[in-house]
Amino acid sequence: MIDSETTLTGIPAAACTYRLGNRSALDWVLDQHKERKPRAPTIREKFDTYRFADHKEKVIDLLARVTRVSVETQRIVEAMKTAVR
User: Fold this and answer.
1) 8/41 Cα distance (integer angstroms)
2) Beta strands of the chain (E only): which ranges?
3) Are 26 and 15 in contact (CB under 8 A)?
4) Tens digit of each residue's pLDDT (9 = 90 or more) over 65-76
5) Count of CB atoms within 10 A of residue 43's CB?
6) Taken in order 2, 51, 36, 66, is the CA torsion positive or negative?
7) Residue 72, CB half-sphere, CA atoms under 13 Å: how many?
8) Tens of pLDDT along 2-61?
9) pLDDT score at 72
10) Tens digits of per-residue pLDDT, 18-30?
């Protein structure tokens, strides 16, 4: 689920096992694009204009591309492990 209205399905498990540090690439993308409220009231008043809904289609496209790269990377890594044995 990427927001209260949108759920993505059919994401291969390999996409979730590809890690950037301690979390999956998909989790990283979602974290970078979630709405945050600035703590300082003055900053919040002037710069609180980001709405996820305005960018949802681009984020979904990005998630699809990150999924493809994650799965392909996992396939390559597994092939390299097999070739080394």
Assistant:
1) 34
2) 19-20, 23-24
3) yes
4) 999 999 999 999
5) 11
6) positive
7) 6
8) 777 888 889 998 898 888 889 999 999 988 887 777 788 887 777 766 677 788 899 999
9) 95
10) 888 899 999 999 8
Q: Which residue has the tokens 């498990």?
A: 13
Q: Which two tokens stand for residue 50?
A: 């980001």
Joined together, the tokens standing for residue 65 give 């591309």
Q: Which two tokens stand for residue 52?
A: 């996820």
Q: Look up tokens 């996992």; give the residue.
A: 74
Helix (H, G, I), strand (E, B) or coil at 19: strand
Return the structure tokens found at 46: 């002037």
Kindly state the tokens that stand for 85. Answer: 């044995």
The answer to whether 48 and 38 are in contact (CB under 8 A) is yes
Written as six digits, the tokens of 82 are 């097999």
pLDDT at 39: 81
Which residues, including other chains, have CB under 8 Å from residue 55's CB and lie 6 or more apart? 33
- Over 80: is that where the pLDDT of 63 sits? yes
Q: What distance separates the 2 farthest-apart alpha carbons in the chain?
A: 60
